[in-house]
Amino acid sequence: MIRMVILSILAVLSTAATAVAGGGAIPFQPDAQVFRPTQRAVVAFNGEEQVLLLSTEMAASAPTRVLRVLPFPSQPTVEAADEEVFRRAVGLLQQNIPASVFQEHRLREIALPREEAEDPADGGEEVQRQQIGAHDIRIVQVTDGRHFITWAEDYLRREGVDEPELPVQLRLAANDYLKAGFRWFVFDMVELDTDPRWTEPIRYRFATKRAYYPLRITRAEQGNTLVRLVILSPRLLQIPDLGAAKVRLLHQPAQFSTSTLEYLDPNLLDLFDEDVPTLLRVWKIQGKLGSFRRDVYTTWH
Question: Looking at residue 18, what is its pLDDT?
């Protein structure tokens, strides 16, 4: 069973996505293109709280700063995640499958080491700023679409962008979230170069009655996307109706023992009841970024 769990995790973590899943991206250089990254994502949900762990490989057509936008249903806490989670998974995999399979699928690359790497504006309340490696993160509470636009454009202006203007699709997506009661946005600025590199893993923790993964915010991006989510929960979640996009289940549910969960990431232990097995499923989501009109926002069967 442990082998099945680890193989499922590694299948997710080794997948190259074709877009910045999980957040809109605004390059500071108008003509710069953000290359489609590899993204590793874990959603751990207990019915009251969720941990979202993200790690992304990014590059651009020219050196530029990029502002990423991530909406949340409640105020998140933000902290650096343990990159060793991925290395531990690789170590367990090496112990459980033939070396030829390990090499053929280049699974070691999942654990490649990463490279080293203001006052609130009117219209939005900046409640936290945190520097995590290459990330300059601002958690902002806004009240309506005008405030969202004002805060983001003022931020870009302060950072040296001449005549900033948010993409129309990003404005529409932000309005959709605000109408749905979302008031919290994480603005994450990173510096990109033409050489792909991993940004530091980030852990977001927030209160929610539904398991959540944002997709609508990517409507301003072009092309197709492939997202694979590792879902950890004490009960099976309903498969969300995403409209044009589809969710595929890649395997039967697997169970984590407390000891295995602690080994992979001790920070998840207080999220789950130690007397109840933690279930793991991998979800695969594919579709055109411009077609996303719904998020993963679901609860128990």
Answer: 42
Chain centroid to CA 126: how far? Answer: 21
| Mean pLDDT to the nearest integer, 151-157 | 93
Q: How far apart are CA 124 and CA 64, in angstroms?
A: 25
CA distance 143 to 76: 17
* pLDDT one-digit tens code per residue, 163-172: 898 888 888 8
Distance CA 287, CA 289 (A): 6
Assign 223 a pLDDT band (cuts: 50, 70, 90): low
Which two tokens mark 8?
Answer: 């499922």
Tell me, what's the pLDDT at 228?
75
Higher pLDDT, 189 or 221: 189
Torsion of CA 296, 270, 200, 233, to 10 degrees: -30
CB burial of 239-268 (b: ≥16 within 10 Å; e: otherwise) equals ebebeebebeeeeebbebeeebbebbbebb
